[in-house]
Amino acid sequence: MRIFYLLPFLAVFVAFPVSAEAETLNKKPFGMWLNEFRQDAMKQGISKKTLDEAFSDIEPIESVIELDRKQPEGRMTLARYLKNTVTDHRVDEGKELMDEHRELLKKVSKEYGVQPEFVVALWGIETNFGSNTGGFDVVDSLATLAYDGRRSEFFRSELISALKILEQEHITVDEMQGSWAGALGQCQFMPSTFLKHAVDFNKNGKHDVWNEQGDVFASMANYLQSLGWNGDEGWGLRVQLPEGFDRSLLDIKKTKPMKEWSKLGVRKADGKPLPEKGMVKDMEVTVALVGEGEDAVPHLMYSNFKALLNWNRSRFFATAVGTLAERIGD
Ligand SMILES: [Ca+2]
User: Fold this and answer.
1) CA-based diameter of the chain, in Å?
2) Is residue 5 scored above 50 in pLDDT?
3) Distance between the two ends of the chain, CA-based, in angstroms?
């Protein structure tokens, strides 16, 4: 850090060699930026000790800038996305892990009202059941993105949140691993989400979403509950529409009772009638598309689908979590 400060011009070019993709938008030397940031962080209650530990050998990470600049290649179809995310192997592993953690998941499910298979499915999609948490030092990643200038406001605030997590001693700076964009541990919460929703399920004083399985499951379930999850319902299902169906009804903001959709000719993907037992026929649900253009697949969405969209706004993501949960729980 001191080197950056003393040799700011050099530091920027050492940290970000010629690659145009990796060039930061911020022309201020990183060391100078960091010093200003530290002042601001101290005003927000972060101690000098925490800052010294967090920034002891920090430098911007070139690959984080590259990843941030990278545009997704081509258009993804739902079929391809599901093929990548809901593999037979992942379903088998999910079933095994649900068995292994049955008691723990039961307790979490009871306390937070989220069915075990949905907790396990989210865990599976987010980090391949905790095996792929990203491998980046989150403080370094967030500092890089906060410094960079493209979305500095957002990442600066997430960096402050990450420092608060360190200040509260939930984890050490070395163990604070996550994605290149700063999503933490096995549940990939952004630091601000962690501060609001992470849970100390084993009551050892730490919200440890890296190493403590109960904390991981309970934090995910707690967050999902806060997003409006209903533990008595599923996520939705793939449907087919009759010819001449009024496409203007395919609007995620609109709901109708299940029986109304039935009357309009909506059927399950296999052609069978929609579920109509008991209260279900009056349940307010949405029919909307997942995917674009010719690849779009109509789905009937329960309110839980929208809870999943609050977790991650991608309809592909919500569909993958739902599909995986269904297959794991099968
Ligand atoms: Ca704990």
Assistant:
1) 73
2) no
3) 53
Distance (Å, whole) CA 85 – CA 324: 8
Distance from C-alpha of 158 to C-alpha of 140, rounded to nearest angstrom: 12
Report whether 278 contacts 289 (CB < 8 A): no
| 272 CA → ligand 1 middle, Å | 46
Mean pLDDT computed over 186-209: 98
Contact 318, 309 (CB under 8 A): yes
Angle between helices 138-148 and 30-43 (to 10 degrees): 110
Q: Please give the distance, rounded to the nearest whole angstrom, from the Cα atom of residue 173 to the centre of ligand 1.
A: 17
Distance 329 CA to ligand 1 centre (A): 27
Q: How far is the CA of 163 from the centre of ligand 1 (A)?
A: 18
Tokens 């501060």 identify what position? Answer: 195
Query: Is pLDDT above 80 for 234?
Result: yes
Residues 6+ apart with CB under 8 A from 47: 167
Q: What is the distance in A from the centroid of ligand 1 to the CA of 47?
A: 23
Nearest to 41 by CA among 216, 196, 167, 145: 167
Query: Treating both helix axes as pointing N-terminal to C-terminal, what angle do 303-311 and 213-226 enclose, rounded to 10 degrees?
Result: 120
> 83 CA distance to ligand 1 centroid (A)?
35
* Ligand 1 centre distance from Cα of residue 192 (Å): 18
Q: Which residues contact 260 (CB under 8 A, 6 or more apart)?
A: none
The string of DSSP codes covering 210-231 is TT-HHHHHHHHHHHHHHTT--T
Element spanning 284, H or E: strand 284-290
pLDDT per residue as tens digits for the range 128-144? 999 999 999 999 999 99
Return the SS3 of 105. Answer: helix
pTM across the whole model: 0.90
CA of 224 to the centre of ligand 1 (A): 19
Distance of CA 171 from the midpoint of ligand 1 (Å)? 10
The secondary structure of the chain in percent helix, strand, coil, rounded to multiples of 5, reads 55, 10, 35
**Cα 194 to averaged position of ligand 1 atoms, centre (Å):** 13
